[in-house]
């Protein structure tokens, strides 16, 4: 990545991540809705990674294949292509997204979940839920724009589609997602249940921003990706 493009891309991601921080500090946005917005960012990451896998042009030195057996046709050998990797990635990602969504609802929306199970959803509860849409939609929309910008600038104009194979792309986002969601869920739980001051919530969002920036720099090879370490270890290293 060119130095100028790297700086612009970092600024876009930083500004997008500062939107929920601004909402928490000055607009009274609630933690639960911020968490839902970050979950939607995970959906955005999965979406763009899926597109990257389908559009990757990097040649692989060794093709993977799978063997299937059918009683009428015997054994069949099938070479993996971009579509196979994309479908496999999508299946694993949807399972992870469902798991994270359940955790977020259980931890941050227990009252609403209780009303759903009791069948006690009233107009007031729905209107209250709707009134908080901006608190998760605006952060999610800003992060979507940041990832869209990076996708267009880095992946297509800077031809990163030649740098990563479908298999590499399939694995790449999970490390970023797991590190980010682990920090948010654990930190968010502590903030929610121990009633710590608002600057602790701001610090949690700040840590998420650091994770995001490091993951972005590693993804675009501005800094050297670690070999086997988790993303939290990288934060300590680069700080």
Concise overview:
With 239 residues, this protein is mostly helical. It has 9 helices and 2 strands.
Features:
239 residues; mainly alpha; 2 strands; disordered C terminus
Please describe what this structure looks like.
The protein is mainly alpha-helical and 239 residues long. It has one domain. Helix content is 74%, strand content 5%. The protein is built from 9 helices and 2 strands, in the order H-H-E-E-H-H-H-H-H-H-H. It has a two-stranded antiparallel sheet. Helix 1 packs antiparallel against helix 8 and helix 8 packs across helix 9. The longest helix has 29 residues. The chain starts with a helix and ends with a helix.
List the helices and strands and how they pair.
Blueprint: H1 3-26, H2 31-55, E1 65-70, E2 74-79, H3 82-108, H4 110-118, H5 123-131, H6 133-157, H7 166-194, H8 198-219, H9 231-238
Antiparallel strand pairs: 1-2
What is the straight-line distance between the termini?
Answer: 22 Å
How are the strands ordered across the major sheet? 1-2
How do the SSEs run, as a string of H and E?
Answer: HHEEHHHHHHH
User: How many strands in all?
Assistant: 2
């Amino acid at each position: 990545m060119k130095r100028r493009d790297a700086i612009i891309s970092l600024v876009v991601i930083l500004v997008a991540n500062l939107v929920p921080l601004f909402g928490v500090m000055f607009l009274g946005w609630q933690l639960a809705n911020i968490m839902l917005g970050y979950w939607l960012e995970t959906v955005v990451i999965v979406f763009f990674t899926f597109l990257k896998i389908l559009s990757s042009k990097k040649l692989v030195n060794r093709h993977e294949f799978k063997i299937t057996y059918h009683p009428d046709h015997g054994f069949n050998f099938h070479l993996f292509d971009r579509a196979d990797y994309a479908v496999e990635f999508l299946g694993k990602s949807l399972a992870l997204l469902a798991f994270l969504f359940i955790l977020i609802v259980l931890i941050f929306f227990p009252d609403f979940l209780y009303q759903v199970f009791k069948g006690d959803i009233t107009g007031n509860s729905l209107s209250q839920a709707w009134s908080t849409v901006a608190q998760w939609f605006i952060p999610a929309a800003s992060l979507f724009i940041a990832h869209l910008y990076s996708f267009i600038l880095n992946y297509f104009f800077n031809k990163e589609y030649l740098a990563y194979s479908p298999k590499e792309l399939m694995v790449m986002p999970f490390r970023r997602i797991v590190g980010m969601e682990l920090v948010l869920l654990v930190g968010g739980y502590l903030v929610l249940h121990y009633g710590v001051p608002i600057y602790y919530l701001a610090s949690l969002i700040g840590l998420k921003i650091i994770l995001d920036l490091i993951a972005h720099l590693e993804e675009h090879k501005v800094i050297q990706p670690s070999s086997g370490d988790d993303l939290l270890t990288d934060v300590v290293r680069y700080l």
